[in-house]
């Protein structure tokens, strides 16, 4: 039913965080495969992806990646983004009655400071992007990034939250500092 796709570059820790949050979907049989598109990582990203059973691609054409996805729906995420409890049910509910794209709710516990939110657009993948494989195939072009795919168009909001990747990085920096 669902293929998860992420792009990474030296995101070993963030990738591990996201993949651990996705285990529920794999156990419930919703996640068919996970594809990690690498941009020249020199850390352990490949090992993390391999240990989790992901396809780790170091060169690709986005059209071929989407075509090879095993799921009819694609969930595009940033490494480090962690869907919160209930994400599997929210996605299953959405795909059963909707044909259009959707995004997670932003986490109420992880919000940027007010002045950083004012007049600023969120990055396209900050809240994830759920879309049908068919919709992506109709518009994807060689050279596009996942952020390009997630830009534009209206998306419904799923009834569960996601901790954005930037929040995970900020928490790690606080612990380390």
From TrEMBL:
Protein name stated in the entry: Glycosyl transferase
InterPro entries: Nucleotide-diphossugar_trans
Organism: Shinella kummerowiae
Entry keywords, A to Z: Transferase
GO molecular function terms attached to this record: transferase activity
């Amino acid at each position: 039913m669902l293929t998860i796709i992420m792009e990474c570059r030296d995101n070993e820790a963030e990738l591990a965080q996201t993949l651990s949050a996705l285990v529920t979907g794999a156990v419930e049989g919703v996640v068919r495969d996970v594809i990690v598109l690498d941009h020249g990582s020199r850390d352990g990203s490949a090992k993390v992806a391999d240990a989790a059973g992901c396809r780790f691609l170091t060169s690709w054409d986005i059209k071929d990646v989407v075509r090879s996805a095993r799921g009819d729906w694609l969930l595009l995420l940033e490494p480090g983004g962690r869907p919160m409890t209930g994400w599997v049910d929210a996605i299953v509910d959405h795909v059963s009655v909707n044909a259009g794209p959707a995004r997670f709710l932003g986490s109420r516990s992880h919000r940027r400071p007010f002045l950083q939110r004012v007049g600023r657009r969120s990055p396209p993948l900050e809240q994830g992007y759920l879309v049908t494989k068919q919709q992506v195939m109709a518009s994807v072009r060689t050279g596009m990034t996942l952020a390009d795919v997630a830009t534009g168009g209206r998306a419904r909001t799923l009834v569960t939250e996601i901790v954005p990747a930037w929040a995970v990085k900020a928490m790690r920096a606080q612990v380390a500092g």
